[in-house]
Specification:
The structure holds 2 protein chains of 2 kinds. By secondary structure, chain A is an all-alpha fold. Chain A has one domain (about 1-305). In chain A, about 60% of the residues lie in helices and about 0% in strands. Chain A starts with 7 loop residues before the first helix and ends with a helix. By secondary structure, chain B is of the alpha+beta class. Chain B has 2 domains: about 1-30; about 40-120, no CATH class. Helix content of chain B is about 30%, strand content about 30%. Chain B has helices at about 5-25, 40-50, 90-95, and strands spanning about 55-60, 65-70, 75-80, 85-90, 100, 105, 115-120. Chain B starts with a helix and ends in an 11-residue tail after the last strand. Classes of the chains: A mainly alpha, B alpha+beta. The interface of A and B includes residues 24, 42, 120, 233 and 290 of A.
Amino acid sequence: MSKAAFDPVTLATPFFILTVILEIALARLNKVQARYEARDTAVSLVMGLGSTLAGVAIAGLTVAASLWVYQHRLFTVPMTAVWAWVAIFLLEDLTYYWFHRLSHERRIWWAAHVNHHSSQHYNLSTALRQTWTGGVAGTWALWLPLSFLGFPPAMVAIEKGISLVYQYWIHTETIRRTPRWFEAVFNTPSHHRVHHARNPRYLDRNYAGILIVWDRLFGTFQPELDAEPCRYGLVKNLGTFNVLRVAFHEWIAIAQDVARQPRHALGWLFGPPGWSPDGSRETSREIKARWAAERGAPEADREAA
Amino acid sequence: MFSHAYLVQVAASGAAVAALVSLAAWARIARPLNPLDDASARFHLAEEFPDRKVEQVWVAVDGAGALAKSGAAALVLCRLGDGYVARQIPWAQALAAAFKSGRIVLDLGDVAAPKAVIQLQAWPPKDLAA
C-alpha cells in the first residue's frame, strides 16, 4: 500500500528502538521477565530492516494497484469524516484478521509469514521479525476492496500502519494481563503470546490485529492458561540463525515438494502447512486432534480449562 | 535511484540494529540452559515427539545435543542459541553417520535445519551397529 505522508510506522520507529532498550535494561536489572539471545535478536532486527527494504521494492506495484482500484470505486468516502475513520478502523481490522488467518492456514501464504513465528523467544524484538516476501505472496491485494469501496488508499495505508504499530507492544512477556474489559475487546500481550506458542492447544489461535472480538466471533479465540505456559516458535523449530534461510526456507521447501511431486502442486501450494499427499506430515488440525485424543478430551475443552 | 535521505535512514537503521544486538549480547539475559543429561534429554524428546517411544538415548559429551533410537527412527535434539531444535531421521542414516574428531554430523534433509552436529564418545554403538 502507498506510503502516506503520515506514516505511523516511520513515526514509531524511535519508540520501537527505545522500548527494546528499555525491555533489555529492565530484564538485565531483574525488574521484568524478558529473555533475549543475541543471535536471535540479530535475526529479528535484520528481518525487520530487510522487510522495510522489501516493502520499498514492491511499493510501486502496490501503490499503482490501489490507485487503479480507487479510480474504479463504488463510493467516495471523505477522509475528514469521523465515521469514515471508525469504519476504516473496523474494516481494516477485519481484513487483517482474514489476512492473518489465511497466512497461517494456506502454505503459500504461510511461507511469507512463517519467519515472524520462527523465534523461540517472545520479546519486543520478535515484533520486528517481519516478512521479506509478503509482497511476492500478494496478500496486500486483500486490502484492495477497501479502496474499491471508496476509502482513499492513503487512509487505508495509515490504518494499516496504526494496526502494525499497535501490534508491536503486544510482543512481550513483561505484561501478564491487562484489565478484564481490555482483554475482552482488544488484542493483548496475553492473547498474542498464545498466537506465538507451539503448544498444540494454542496452535492457529488468536489471529486478531487490534480487536480480539474477531477471534471470539469466528471461533478461533483461545485464552492463555496459567497452567500451560507458552512454548514459542514453530512446530519444527529452525536449526539455524542464517537470515536467508529464515526468510526463504519455506519457499524453498515448497519448491522442493512441487519439483518432487508436480502432480500435487496445488496441494503443496494451497493446502494447509503440514499437508502432504500421503499424510506423512501433520497439519495443525491433525496435531491438535492427536493431542486431544492423547488427553482423552475433546479439543473443545480449551475454553473451559 | 534512492534519495540521500533514504540512504541515511537505512544506514541509521543498520547502526541501530548493531547497537541493539550488542546491548542484547552485553545484557546476558538469554535463557539459562544447563547441559543435557539423560533425564533432561528424555524430557525434551518427549516434548518434541510425544507419540514416539524412546528406546535408548546418547547424550552429547558437551551436553549440547542428544540422539535417540525410536524404532526405525533416530530422534535428533541439538542446541541452538538458548533453545533446542529437534528432527527425526531414519535410524539407518544416523547409524551410518561418519564419526570424526569425536563428533557425528547428521544430514537432517531439511532446508530449515540442514544438519546437526553431536559430540559423542564413540559411534556407532557397538550393540546396535550390526
